[in-house]
Amino acid sequence: MEITPNISLQKYNTFGIKAKAKFFCEVTTIAQLKQVLSLDQYPRKFILSGGSNMLLIDDIDALVIRINIKGKEIVKEDNNTIWLQVMAGENWHNFVLWCVNNDYGGIENMSLIPGNVGTAPIQNIGAYGVELKDSFVSCNALHKKTKEIHTFNKEECKFGYRDSFFKNEGKDEYIITSVILKLSKKDHNLHISYGAIASELASYKISKPTIKDISNAVISIRKSKLPDPAELGNSGSFFKNPVVNKLIFDKFIKNNPEAPFYKLTETEYKIPAGWLIEQCGYKGKRYGDAGVHKNQALVLVNYGNATGQEILHLSQQIQTSVFDTFGIEIQAEVNIIK
Ligand code: EPU
Prior knowledge:
Uridine Diphospho-n-acetylenolpyruvylglucosamine Reductase, domain 1; binds uridine-diphosphate-2(N-acetylglucosaminyl) butyric acid; 8 helices; Uridine Diphospho-n-acetylenolpyruvylglucosamine Reductase, domain 2; 5-stranded antiparallel β-sheet; Uridine Diphospho-n-acetylenolpyruvylglucosamine Reductase, domain 3; 3 domains; alpha+beta
């Protein structure tokens, strides 16, 4: 394990922001992770995983530790179900494809989400009607101070919409090292009603889809709407979709009867932030190298040389505009690293 000074983090964050790490190292085992966390000569340490859900505002004045711990194994299985343990450094999409190719069902709707397995529980990743929590059993996480591994079951993770214990009480306390998921081996529970999946499958003339068909449909929909971070820097949805109470919703829908929405409960409604932002005129707008994607207003993009500060400034301008227009607050989903 080598510690290198003054390393550019551009290739380690999907926004492609040219921030630097004062020191940088990569760990491939839990033993190495414990070892590097014990190095007192580097008092400040910063944990980096897939770099797909963060906006770097400044250089990082710390030892940046990149989690690159790989591996997966079968914990147990019966005729219908398989329990898989996956290490934190595995690429999420590669893992989904591996499951789909082995006919393990449950996460196919989350194909092509950037990032690594270890960060998936932090924000309870989700797409097309399925969230990580639906197949989640437990995760192991290293407590940064005691260096002990704790196992968190699903309840302890307190999953919510793009939310968990690790974004709240447990923030910055733990490093997730592995995740156990429970997947189906047959009679898969398919989710095709959300968004454009059904019409995409119909366009392939598929009436009885397999999980591979669903994965392909999701990949194709995502490719048509969302920019590939390898080509255009971005962090997926920059904002969360706001969840509002019935009072606010009734007023909103009266003034905007054409707006899309999802009724979550009798009292809670989710309004697509992408729609709100588009109405405010930001879709496809570009300010220097910071911009709003032309196909999905929820995604902010870096055309090459945008700084984190410029992207942040644009995001704040959008928040203000949405609030002034609709009286609704939208919050960043991406972690802003100051
Ligand atoms: N919409 C607009 N204009 C836009 C974007 C969206 O009017 O520029 C409208 C769409 O027409 C649609 C609605 O908003 O009626 C919802 O759009 P979409 O289906 O694209 O999904 P989203 O709510 O914008 C969420 C997730 C995505 C996930 C998709 C599909 C969040 C913050 N984002 O986006 O997740 O892929 O649903 O499930 O919940 C991510 O988290 O990084 C991410 C990409």
